[in-house]
Amino acid sequence: MITVGAAPIDAGIECAAISATGAGGIATFVGLVRADDGVATLELEHYPGATEAALAMLAARAVERWGLIDARITHRVGVMVPGDIVVFVGTAAAHRAAALEACAFLIDRLKTDAPFWKKETRGDDASWVEPRGSDDAAAARWSH
Amino acid sequence: MGLELVYFAWVRERIGHGSETVHPPADVVTVAGLIDWLAAGSAVHAAAFIDRTRLRAAVDQTFVGLDASVIGAREVAIFPPVTGG
């Protein structure tokens, strides 16, 4: 299931939802807003429609490649503060290796393949986050 | 029928709005050609698009290179590299 919205993400509810699939192995990733260098707020912008489609395509590829029972991606948009959950990724598989690998694939590829943009504010200064080469490298390791 | 343009993040901020409808001439056939045409017609667009290496695009919500065709497109999005997750 793919969800993109402004509502706060509850990791417990998300985890319960992916666990309800009855799978033998569940892997989850929870990404939170870091308080890097005095970040006061983080604002997430997205491309409505295209973002959901990109996430759905990634989830479908993960389900096919690792034989998952289910994949769940919940991504928040709008204004957040340090400690808020930005993204939840959950994968359900019969065994742990598939669940763990697919979860890593989804969060790595989500960072490079889905149209989201981050803007940080520190005091009166607001700046758009620049993409990191390490994110491209992490995404590329799944391309073979 | 016009071509719908949508902008995101600092591209949107520099241009000053998130969308606009344009009517490019027939010799505009690629995303790069569209960017050149927009930049030639407006100093604001020219400033926003000054560094092409920092621009990414989608045609009808499919991510493409700047050399991709816009012939028959209904919506073209222009934006910076993505930074989600």
TrEMBL record, chain A:
Pfam families associated with the record: MoaE
InterPro entries in alphabetical order: MoaE_sf (IPR036563), Mopterin_biosynth_MoaE (IPR003448)
E.C. number(s) listed in UniProt: 2.8.1.12
UniProt KW Metal-binding keyword: no
Entry keyword set: Molybdenum cofactor biosynthesis
Pathway connected to this protein: Cofactor biosynthesis; molybdopterin biosynthesis
Subunit structure: Heterotetramer of 2 MoaD subunits and 2 MoaE subunits. Also stable as homodimer. The enzyme changes between these two forms during catalysis.
Keyword Transferase assigned: no
Species per Swiss-Prot/TrEMBL record: Sphingomonas psychrolutea
Region Disordered, residue ranges: 125-144
First-tier enzyme category under EC: transferase
UniProt family annotation: Belongs to the MoaE family.
Taxonomic placement: Bacteria, Pseudomonadati, Pseudomonadota, Alphaproteobacteria, Sphingomonadales
Entry protein name: Molybdopterin synthase catalytic subunit
Function as written in the Swiss-Prot or TrEMBL entry: Converts molybdopterin precursor Z into molybdopterin. This requires the incorporation of two sulfur atoms into precursor Z to generate a dithiolene group. The sulfur is provided by MoaD.
Catalytic reaction equation(s): 2 [molybdopterin-synthase sulfur-carrier protein]-C-terminal-Gly-aminoethanethioate + cyclic pyranopterin phosphate + H2O = molybdopterin + 2 [molybdopterin-synthase sulfur-carrier protein]-C-terminal Gly-Gly + 2 H(+)
Automatic annotation (TrEMBL), chain B:
Domain of life: Bacteria
Alphabetized Pfam families for the sequence: ThiS
Protein name per UniProt: Molybdopterin synthase sulfur carrier subunit
